[in-house]
Amino acid sequence: MRGDRAAVRPALPLLLWLPLLWPRAGALRPGELFPHGPARGDRLLRDGDDESSGAVELARPLRFYGARVRRLYVGTNGIISTQDFPRETQYVDDGFPTDFPAIAPFLADVDTSQGRGRVLFREDTSPEVLALAARYVRTGFPRAAHFAPTHAFLATWAQVGAYEEAARGAPPSGERNTFQAVLASDESDTYALFLYPAGGLQFFGTRPKESYNVQLELPARVGFCRGEATGLKGEAPYFSLTSTEQSVKNLYQHSNLGVPGVWAFHIGSTSPLDNVRPAAAGGGLSAAQTPAPPGQPFSHVAALESDDAEDDLDYYDGNEEEVEYPPGDPEEAAKGHSSVDVPLHVEADPGPLGGGGSPLDSDLASPLPHPTPSGGPFYPATESATLDPQTEEGRPVGETDASDAKGPTESSEQLETGGLAPPGTEGHPPAPPREGPAPHPETRSLQPHPAAGTPPSGLDVPPHRPVLDHHPPLGHGRQVVGVEDDIGSNTEVFTYNAGKETCEHNHGRCSRHAFCTDYATGFCCHCQSRFYGNGQQCLPEGAPHRVNGKVSGHLRVGPTPVHFTDVDLHAYIVSNDGRAYMAISHIPQPAARALLPLTPIGGLFGWLFALEKPGWTNGFSLTGAAFTHDMEVTFHPGGERLLVTQTAEGLDPENYLSIRTHIRGQAPYIPANLTVHVAPYKELYHYADSAVTSASSRDYALAAGAVNQTRSYRVLQNITFQACRHAPRPRAAPAVQQLSVDRVFAWYAEDEGVLRFALTSLVGPAGGDSEPTPVNPCYDGSHACAMTARCRPGAGVDYSCECAPGYQGDGRSCADVNECATGFHRCGPNAMCVNLPGSYRCECRPGYEFADDGHTCRDVDECSQDPCHPAASCHNTPGSFSCRCRPGYHGDGLRCAPDPLSGLKPCERQQHEAQAQLAVPGAQLHVPQCDEHGHFVPLQCDSSTGSCWCVDPDGHEVPGSQTRPGSAPPHCGPPEPTPRPRTVCERWRETLLELYGGAPGDDQYVPQCDEWGHFTPLQCHGRSDFCWCVDRDGREVPGTRSQPGTTPACVPTVAPPTVRPTPRPDVTPPPVGTYLLYAQGQQIGHLPLNGTRLQKDAARTLLSLHGSIVVGIDYDCRERMVYWTDVAGRTISRASLEPGAEPETIISSGLMSPEGLAIDHVRRTMYWTDSGLDKIERARLDGSERKALFHTDLVNPRAIAVDPIRGNLYWTDWNREAPKIETSSLEGENRRILVNKDIGLPNGLTFDAFSKLLCWADAGTKRLECTLPDGAGRRVIQSSLNYPFSLVSYAGHFYHTDWRRDGVISVDRDSGQFTDEYLPEQRSHLYGITAVHPYCPAGRK
Q1: Is the Cα dihedral 71, 75, 78, 79 positive or negative?
Q2: 322 has which bridge partners?
Q3: What is the pLDDT of residue 772?
Q4: Which residue, 177, 525, 1087, 1316, shows the most beta carbons closer than 10 Å to its own?
Q5: Rounded Cα–Cα distance for residues 1331 and 1078 (Å)
Q6: CA 1266/CA 1248 separation, integer angstroms
Q7: 1298 Cβ partners below 8 Å, 6+ apart?
């Protein structure tokens, strides 16, 4: 394509650009929350860890999504719902979506017990509250300009704490959070406001109770969810605002309507509202992130954390490629005259706004944006924030970017004559400069040449130091430079050892985007193609980069000492056009103004990531992310001297460069009524092995109305780094490069306390201004490539755009590649892949830590840290551990106490304890009856009441077994198995035996039946040799009757045909073996097993069923057929696993929503549930003899399982009001409830014929549990499932499909540990799952 700079970057007028520098409103203060407290009519929630308000009846209903809501529930855990909450463990540690309607300003494990804060709530119709809510809504939603709420619901969590387990010797944490949710409604539309005051969030997540001893903290969740989906086609709509700790921290620092800490959302309407919509006035969040379609989640996390779209969320946003600098005449720019006046005032100008606007209304003292009458942009009314230079305290403010608040320009304050002097000097010259502090002990002072005076302005003067002999390579080959012996570096990120080392044992020390090369004296790391850096750290070409760090200073500004420690530094670099932005937050005012001319502080990032001319290299290609930048600045004419040390400390897990800055010395004072102008400049950098030096002079102007004064300073820079000296050097390499810096801006946002720098940098040859025109757009940044693309120059002004690594697209538009979803990552089996913009990172699962390669996770041996009680033994397990008290002690292993009843069986122990309590006068307590072995007697009776009941071996009452006093006691013990109906063979055999008087003669025929009652293939007359073959119905096969002495060869099946039909293209017959079949929407997948391990590489599609939604699935082991239900087609179908088989629909009428399916391979019948008709039916495997077994007392039947050996049927009903698991005979007789306590959403169900266990997976309790067929012996296998749907057992393992992971997960039956996981390449919900054996399982009775 052809680059046209005029078309790509139209210049913006100066007056349009200046509002981008206008500061936005300050952060929300605690006193600016909506009024609350008992005096305002607030009700108080009970103190505790998991409390609920009960139903709060609303005087007027509000809207949530499309529902009309008349009551609300407020919970301790930072959440509001339209229905009562489930148990805390069912939702507080899980992400969105929730299984119930949720409005969550801060969903975490909050605890208000023991005076740890309080939760207040009320409905309010006061004009004061409604007016404030209306102003917020109208600000954030321009289309709601006439919104007038009639009522509001307020909930305030004031100074609440996080749940903590008491630890010996450790005081409780003092961290407290304050936040507020306001729901404002006019009965047709409802808006939610979330408010987080400055300093109001002191903890950002909580630790899950079930694994509290594991060092894991889950970030708080913020967002909305409509609740459980009504069908199987997807999850309920939800809107998520946070996913990481950093995104939670950003809640009080950022906003989506221009006021840090205030967030607004449209959450309900009488008009169609597919999903929650965020406010759009604070920088265009909703424009950057379009709400999701129906049934799909919308995540606002990208707006809080993304690289490319950070509208209103930081001082650099993803739309900065659209921000243009002021136009200027090229000739004027060449003379250094292109600059912008940025007034720096101590207080907001009380006068009128520029452009003739009227003053702000007095009622806008709060930080609400002020609406313009014409419906134009909102301009924030700001308040000044004064910082004490000694305490560094003041009103907390959040960071913003220069383009956030688009306010009008402000007229300059009137300047007095002599206004350049500091306060109190009355125009006298400043005192002589004092001697600066001693140089920082970690760095060497850079002394100017003794004869050097004030150098002239213009191009930099070369440094007065000897030129070193060796020069590094600076071409695009990105070779690594050598180490110069006399130059040191204090970095500890990476070092090359002097001894001979090879890549074989050191490849892990290179970046994962680098390759390792062995040389004669050692090895070196080199970045791969499309990446650049020094080999130890490599960044993608063309992608934006970020820098985070801390700044400390000990300065004397004029006569005033100023100190600050560890204030935040953030920088954002657009590498494909050389732009760099930097901000230092919360810096005291005198220091910030004094540092305004000191652009080299931010200029370091311009040099590191400068746009490169052909054959020239920016700084990061040499230094990587480990270097030290020393800078000495001498101001003229006062002679003040500053020393600056910037130390790079490597890349963090998200590839952000970390840097620490220390400033010390003296700087001239700059009054608040002056503006600072820094002209474009050029400076020369001299390169040697592992060192870069520069010396230059800068002019800057101080402007006050028509008065201008020019000042200057001399700056000496030295950059040292570790380089690899083993690689051969090229024959010729340039020793000098020129850095051209244009569009230089420096300003101080008074109300935020943020010092900002912005500049554009280009690196090339010294004196490189004589290059021919036109310049290729890749070299001056005028190209049209995306911010995440690399500009590739062509002939003349032609160029092409190539998306940076980790992105895909045409170069003009690039989208992030999700390496985690596509499988292009290197995370190990016990690691989780976390997608990042342009990259990814690996995180170990709880209980694991990274191995030396940084990708594989190995088990942490927690027992080595002695976590258990001294009287307990520790047992390490993969990813976890367990503690067990030793014999003679009792407890949970973390706490053990001597057991006075050691040696007694449970029944004897309970009997002893009950008898001891009966000694108390008036006590009435059942004393359990034990047998001679100390075990519970199955039948227990209370002598005082006459009631009797059955107990299991653990002494727990069997549900439904208790009888009334005076009635017959129940029958205790396992129920009698339902007898199997007699077959034709068995009935014929009994008839003949009766006819023969019970003892047939040697020549009398009696049918021979197998264990299932079927005719054996070979039949004979008594003990004679007269035999023949029969078919499955007992009919003689013609021509098979033998003569005495010979036995016919009878086979159970006929031989297969020698010629088979051609298989369908969408059916792939699987090989013989053991494997899993799973339903995934419009296809059935095939996942082989190697023992019990998932052979993920061999997984493939077995059957494509376009237009279907396959839910239930099962397998007939006798005829090798797979059966499935289809809720889209409302059918039940089957297909043989033999080549050439065609799918066959066997039931196509009388179905509404067929879900669960079970095959009885013995009786040749199938059973299924229909959640639409609330029925359970059965039929023969060909669809004949259909019969409805149950059609009453069913609400949401789902899973179904059959035990063909004992003749029992089991099914689940996830009725939210009364979930249950039921059983009956296969004929529909003896129906009874098996489990109805402590279950939530029993989705999956399986019967293991080998262990005789009935097991289920519960998406409500998150547990996998098992019980015996009679309901006894219930135990938990695994208690930390995500969202299981279907379940099957095989060879001591459970395999279940999961809707959170969209995959198949295996669990060991004995240990309960997760053992394996398979995530299909095509990610969507998985439904039913079944196991295919090469034989029919016999089981045991």
Answers
A1: negative
A2: none
A3: 52
A4: 525
A5: 9
A6: 10
A7: 1281, 1282, 1283, 1284, 1285, 1304, 1305, 1326
pLDDT at 367 over 50: no
Burial class (CB in 10 A: 0-12, 13-18, 19+), 315: buried
Residue 191 in contact with residue 267, Cβ under 8 Å?
yes
**Residue 854 Rama label (left phi>0; alpha psi -120 to 50; beta):** left
Cα gap 141→148, rounded to integer Å: 13
CA pair distance 1028, 1039, nearest whole angstrom: 8
Mean of pLDDT over the chain? 76
- Kindly report the pTM of this predicted structure: 0.36
Higher-confidence position of 1 and 650: 650
| Amino acid found at 1172 | G
Chain centroid to Cα 192, Å, comes to 24
- Please tell me the number of Cα atoms within 13 Å of 955 on its side-chain side: 16
Run of H or E residues at 15: helix 14-17
User: What pLDDT score was predicted for residue 532?
Assistant: 87
**What six digits make up the tokens of 1106?**
């376009």
Backbone angles phi, psi at 853, to 5 degrees: -80, -10
Tens digit of each residue's pLDDT (9 = 90 or more) over 237-248? 888 888 778 888
DSSP 943-954: TTT--EEEB-TT
Mean per-residue pLDDT, 111-120: 92
Helices (H) and strands (E) in the chain, counts: 15, 77
Could you tell me the pLDDT band of residue 1307, with boundaries at 50, 70 and 90? Answer: very high
pLDDT for residue 171: 74
Q: Compute CA distances 964 → 946, 950, 1230, 1231, whole Å.
A: 8, 13, 22, 22
- In this structure, are residues 181 and 105 in contact, taking their beta carbons and an 8 Å threshold? yes
For residues 821 and 1147, what is the distance between their CA atoms, to the nearest angstrom?
Answer: 37
Cis peptide before 1071 (omega within 30 of 0): no
**210-214, 746-750, 920-924, 1235-1239: lowest mean pLDDT where?**
210-214
All residues at 6 or more sequence positions from 541 whose CB lies less than 8 Å from its CB, including other chains: 530, 531, 532, 575, 790, 804, 805
Contact (Cβ atoms closer than 8 angstroms) between residue 476 and residue 711 = no
Which has the higher per-residue pLDDT, 97 or 436? 97
Q: What is 645-675 written as a DSSP string?
A: EEEEEEE-TT-PEEEEEEEEEEE----TT-E
**pLDDT over 70 percentage in the chain:** 76
| Cα distances (angstroms) measured from residue 14 to each of 101, 376, 410, 1034, 1111 | 49, 19, 13, 99, 62
In this structure, the dihedral spanned by the alpha carbons of residues 117, 122, 124 and 130, taken in order and rounded to 10 degrees, is 40
Q: What is the pLDDT of residues 155-203, one digit of tens each?
A: 999 999 998 876 656 677 889 999 999 999 997 899 999 999 998 999 9
Beta bridge partners of 1084: 1079, 1103
- Quote the percentage of the chain above a pLDDT of 90: 29
Dihedral sign (CA 796, 797, 803, 805): positive
Cα 457 from chain centroid?
A: 52
For β-strands 118-124 and 218-219, DSSP reports them as: unpaired
* 419: its two tokens: 């206004």
Interatomic CA distance for residues 412 and 1157, integer angstroms: 79
Q: What is the rounded CA–CA span in Å between residue 1339 and residue 1341?
A: 7
- Of all helices (H) and strands (E), which one includes residue 814? strand 814-816
712 bridge partner residues: 636, 699
Cis peptide leading into residue 1088 (ω within 30°)? no
Q: What are the angstrom distances between the C-alpha of 1148 and each of 541, 1127, 1183, 1185, 1328?
A: 58, 11, 9, 14, 20
Beta-carbon contacts of residue 348 (< 8 Å; ≥ 6 apart): 382, 383, 384, 410, 750, 751
